[in-house]
C-alpha cells in the first residue's frame, strides 16, 4: 500500500474542502451585509427660517436640540439625518421644547436632500414646508432654483437681462431648476400684489447649485429680501440620472459570485473524492476479509 500517496490525497481533499467552506462563508457574509449598508444611508436636510413673525428660535429633532440662536433669513448647510419619520419642533430661544410654536412629523427618504422651511405668520399660523432638492450637475455647468417664501406677496417672477427665468410661482413653492452657465447675473424678482421688485447680482461658480430664497414682507418688518445659498454640485452617475446620495443596492459584485462558484466546485470535487475514496477503502477491506477467511 502506498501510504505516502494516500496521505497526500487525504490532506489535499481535506484542505480543498476547508478552503471551499471558508470562501463560501466569507462571500455569503459580504453579500448578506450589503442590504444593511444600503438601508443605513441617511437623508440630507437643511433648514431656513422664513417666518417674519417668529423671532430667534431653537430647533429640535426627536426631542434633541439641533439649532440654537437660529435667526430669521438664515439657512443652514445640509446635514445627514437618519431616514424615516422624525418629530421636528421650533420654539423661541430659551423657552424650551414644551413651548414649541411648531410641532410637525416629517418623513425623509434615504439618500434624498431636502430643504425644510419654517413658514407662516400669526394670522395664518406656522408650519414647516419641505422641498425635495436635486444637486446633480451635468458636466461643469450650474443651475438655479428660486424659493418663494414671502407671505403676502402674491406670485413672483424672476428675470435676468430681460429674460424670464421663473414665471409666477406662488407663496410656499419653489421653481424647477434652471440650467445656466457659470458667471455673474443681474437678477430681478417681481411681485404681483403688491407691485414690488427686488434686484441683486448673483455669481454662480462652475459645477454649483444656487438656491435663491425670497423672504420677508414687502410692507412691514422684517423687510423683503433675497437670501442665497450656493451648493457644490454632484456629478450625475452614468445611466441613472445620478442621485448623488443614494447607496447603490444593485452593484454587480461579479467577482464575489466567481469566488462562490469556484468554492462550490472545490467542495463538490472534495465530496466526490471523499465518497469514492470511502467506497474504495470499503471494497479493499471486504476483499481482505474474504481472502483471510
Can you give a write-up of this model?
The protein is of the alpha+beta class and 293 residues long. The chain folds into 3 domains: 3-39 and 253-292; 42-133, Immunoglobulin-like; 135-246, Immunoglobulin-like. The protein has 2 helices and 19 strands. The protein has helices at residues 3-39, 254-292, and strands at residues 43-49, 57-61, 64-70, 79-81, 84-92, 102-108, 113-121, 125-132, 136-137, 142-148, 156-160, 163-169, 173-174, 178-180, 183-191, 196-204, 208-215, 225-232, 234-235. Strands 10, 13, 14, 17 and 18 form a 5-stranded mixed sheet that branches. A hairpin with a 2-residue loop joins strand 11 (156-160) and strand 12 (163-169). It is flat and about 105 Å long.
Mean pLDDT, all residues:
81
Quick one: overall form?
A: flat
Beta-strand residue percentage: 35-45%
Radius of gyration over C-alpha positions, nearest whole angstrom = 32 Å
Percentage of residues in helical conformation: 25-40%
Number of strands: 19
Q: Which CATH architecture of the largest domain is right?
A: Sandwich
CATH homologous group name of the largest domain: Domain of unknown function DUF5300
- Major sheet details: 5 strands, mixed
The top level CATH class name of the largest domain: Mainly Beta
Number of domains as seen in the coordinates = 3
Reported by name, the CATH topology of the largest domain is Immunoglobulin-like
Q: Please give the count of helices.
A: 2
Instruction: State the low-pLDDT regions, or none.
Output: 33-38, 237-255
Distance N terminus to C terminus?
Answer: 21 Å
Category by helix and strand content:
alpha+beta
Order of helices and strands: HEEEEEEEEEEEEEEEEEEEH
Domain DUF4397: 43-155
Signal peptide: 1-38
Protein name: Cell wall anchor
Keywords: Membrane, Signal, Transmembrane, Transmembrane helix
Amino acid at each position: 500500500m502506498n501510504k505516502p500517496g494516500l496521505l497526500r490525497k487525504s490532506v489535499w481533499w481535506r484542505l480543498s474542502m476547508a478552503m471551499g467552506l471558508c470562501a463560501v462563508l466569507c462571500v455569503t457574509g459580504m453579500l448578506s451585509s450589503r442590504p444593511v449598508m444600503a438601508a443605513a444611508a441617511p437623508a440630507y436636510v437643511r433648514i431656513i427660517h422664513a417666518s417674519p413673525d417668529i423671532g430667534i428660535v431653537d430647533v429640535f429633532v426627536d426631542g434633541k436640540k439641533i439649532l440654537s440662536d437660529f435667526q430669521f433669513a438664515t439657512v443652514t448647510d445640509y446635514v445627514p439625518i437618519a431616514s424615516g419619520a422624525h418629530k421636528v419642533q421650533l420654539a423661541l430661544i430659551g423657552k424650551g421644547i414644551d413651548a414649541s410654536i411648531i410641532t410637525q412629523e416629517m418623513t425623509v427618504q434615504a439618500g434624498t436632500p431636502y430643504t425644510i422651511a419654517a413658514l407662516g405668520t400669526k394670522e395664518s399660523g406656522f408650519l414647516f414646508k419641505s422641498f425635495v432638492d436635486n444637486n446633480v450637475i451635468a458636466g461643469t455647468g450650474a443651475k438655479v432654483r428660486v424659493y418663494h417664501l414671502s407671505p403676502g406677496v402674491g406670485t413672483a417672477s424672476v428675470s435676468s437681462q430681460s429674460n424670464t427665468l421663473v414665471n409666477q410661482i406662488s407663496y410656499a413653492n419653489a421653481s424647477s431648476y434652471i440650467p445656466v452657465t457659470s458667471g455673474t447675473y443681474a437678477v430681478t424678482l417681481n411681485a404681483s400684489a403688491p407691485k414690488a421688485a427686488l434686484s441683486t447680482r448673483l455669481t454662480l461658480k462652475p459645477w454649483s447649485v444656487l438656491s435663491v430664497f425670497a423672504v420677508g414682507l414687502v410692507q412691514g418688518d422684517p423687510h423683503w429680501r433675497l437670501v442665497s445659498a450656493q451648493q457644490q454640485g454632484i456629478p450625475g452617475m452614468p445611466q441613472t440620472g445620478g442621485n448623488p446620495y443614494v447607496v447603490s443596492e444593485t452593484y454587480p459584485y461579479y467577482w464575489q459570485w466567481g469566488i462562490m462558484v469556484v468554492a462550490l466546485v472545490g467542495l463538490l470535487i472534495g465530496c466526490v473524492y471523499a465518497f469514492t475514496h470511502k467506497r474504495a477503502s470499503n471494497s479493499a477491506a471486504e476483499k481482505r476479509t474474504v481472502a483471510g477467511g
